[in-house]
Amino acid sequence: MLRFPQGFVWGAATSSYQIEGGWLEGGKGMSVWDAFVHTPGKIVNGDMGDVAADHFHRFREDVALMAQMGLKAYRFSISWPRIQPTGRGEANPDGIRFYSVLIDALLENGITPWATLHHWDMPITLQLECDGWLNPEMAVYFKEYAEICFEQFGDRVKHWITLNEPWVTAILGYGQGHFAPGRVSQTEPYIAAHNMLRAHGLTVDAFRRKFHDRCGGIIGIANNCDWREPLTDSEQDKQAAQRALEFFLGWFADPIYTGEYPAVMRERVRERLPVFSDADRAVIKGSADYFGLNHYNTMYTAHAEKGKISHIDMESNAGLVDDQELALTDDDSWPKTDMGWNVAPWGCRKLLEWIDRRYDHPDIFLTENGCAAKDELINGQINDQDRIDFLAGYLRECHNAMKNGVQLKGYFVWSFMDNFEWALGYTKRFGLHYVDYRTGERIPKKSAQWYHGVIKNNGIF
Ligand code: PNW
Predict the structure, then answer these.
(1) Ligand 1 centroid from CA 200, angstroms
(2) In the predicted structure, residue 279 carries a pLDDT above the cut 70
(3) Phi then psi for 194, rounded to 5 degrees?
(4) 405 C-alpha to center of ligand 1: Å?
C-alpha cells in the first residue's frame, strides 16, 4: 500500500466544449471550436460538440456520479462565449446561472471546484474581428472576462486555472492547423503564445489586486509537457532532450518563474520570438501560486539537423521541429494507449523532478493525466483494466517523485467521463465513466470503482 499525505487532492477533470453541448442554448455565443467542427474535413467522422455528453442538461446527474465515487475535487472549464457571447461587454445572465448552479451542486456534495477560465473555446467574434491570440489586445479582453468570473464565482471558487495548455493552442491551433482556429504558420505560434502569457499575467495581477483580499484562493496555469529521454548517452542527445523540454515547457514556465524565455529559444528562434516589455514582465514573473501540469507521453530524443526530420516527428507532439533540430522516436517495448501515446510512468517521475529542480521546488498539481482505451460495453459493464494499470503505474511514480522531494499536492484524472476528443471526435474514450452518445446514458467503468478505492484509502495498492 502506497499512502499519500493527508490532504492530497484527488480529482478528475473535464472541459466545457468537450462535454457540455447546448452549443446555442442559454444565450451562448459561438466559439472558434463551434466554427471549426462545422467546417467539413476538420474532424474525424465529421463529429461535432453540438450535443457532446449533454452535460449542459445533465450536470446534476454528473455531480451525483462524482459524489458516488468520493471525488474530492472537480476541474471543469468555463465557456467564455457562455459568459460573454461576443467576447466583450455585458455578462450573459443565463451563462452565469449555469456555472453558479453547477458550483453550488459541487459544494453541496463536498466537492471542491477547480475552475479553468479558458480551455480553448474562444468567442469566434474575437477571431473574426481581431485575429484571436495574434492580437495583443486579447490580453485585456481575457482579463475583463476573467474579472466577471472572479466577481460572480470568487465567493465559492478558491482554485483557479487561467489557461489550459497554451502550447496546444499555439502549436496545433496556430502552427499545424489541426485544432481551432486552424492556422498554419512557423511564426504565429510564438506570437499567440506570447499574448496568452500576457493574458495570463494581466489576469493574475487583477486577481491579486482586486479580488484576493475579499475572496482568497489560489491561481495558476495548466501547462502540458511530455518527457524527453535522451536516445543515447551522447552529449548531443542529452542536449537535444534538454532543448526539447525547454521548447515545450520552458517556453511557458520560464517567463512565469524567471521573466524570460529560455536562452536556447532566443538563440534559435531569434526575431520570431517576441520580447516582453517591462510592464509585461512585471505581471508575468511570479504569476503562479502553484505549478499546474498536464502530462501524457514520453519519447526518446536525438539530435537531428534541419531538413532531416522525418514525417513521424511532425506528428508526435514535437512542436516546431525545425527550430529545435530533434528526432523523436519510441521504444517498441513500451505499451501504447489508444491515442498511440507511450505508457512510460517513469517519464512522469523524471518530468516532475525536472520541474522541481528547474523552478525551485514549487507546489505541483497534476491537472491532467490519463489514457484513451478501447472501452467495450459487455453485459452493461466496462472492464477497463488497461486504464487501471495506467493510472496505478503513474500514481506509483508520482509517489516515488514525492519520496525524492517533489512537492506534488494533487492529481486529476483526465477525464471524469468520455467526451469530444477534439480533432479525433468521439473515436477516443478517456473517461472514468462511459457515455453512450446516442442516449446520453452514463455508466461507471471499472476504473471509476478502482479510483473510488484509491480516494477512500488515500493511496494505491
Ligand atoms: C489535452 N499533444 O489535450 C487536453 O487538455 C484535453 O482537452 C484532451 O482531451 C486531453 O489532453 C487528451 O488529448 C492535448 O499533442 C492535446 O501533445 C494534444 C496534446 C497534448 C494534450
Answers:
(1) 20
(2) yes
(3) -60, -45
(4) 28
Residue 83 belongs to a domain: yes
CA distances to 187, 196, 268, 275, 455 from 271, in Å: 10, 18, 9, 9, 49
Quick: pLDDT tens for 389-402: 999 999 999 999 99
| Cell numbers describing residue 315 | 506528428
The per-residue pLDDT for range 349-372, each reduced to its tens digit, is 999 999 999 999 999 999 999 999
Residue pLDDT, tens place only, 219-270? 999 999 999 999 999 999 999 999 999 999 999 999 999 999 999 999 999 9
In Å, how far from its chain's centre is CA 103? 20
What CATH number is given to the structural domain containing 95?
3.20.20.80
Q: Residue 159 to residues 25, 199, 395, 440: CA-CA distances in angstroms?
A: 27, 18, 22, 29
Q: Which residue range forms the structural domain that includes residue 95?
A: 9-456
Residue 365 lies in a domain: yes
CA 203, 135, 174, 92 dihedral sign is positive
Q: Is residue 1 part of a domain?
A: no
Positive or negative, the CA dihedral 117, 146, 125, 293 is: negative
Q: Which residues of 12-51 are buried (b: 16+ CB within 10 A; e: fewer)?
A: bbbbbbbbbbbbeebbbbbbbbbbbbeeeebbeeebbbeb
- The verdict on residue 417 lying in a domain is yes
pLDDT tens, position by position, 309-351:
554 444 556 677 789 998 899 999 999 999 999 999 999 999 9
**Is 1 within 8 Å of 453 (Cβ atoms)?**
no
Domain count, the chain: 1
Please give the distance, rounded to the nearest whole angstrom, from the Cα atom of residue 213 to the centre of ligand 1. Answer: 34
- Look up 61 and say whether it is catalytic: no
Residue 311's pLDDT is: 45
Catalytic residue among 165, 188, 229, 325: 165
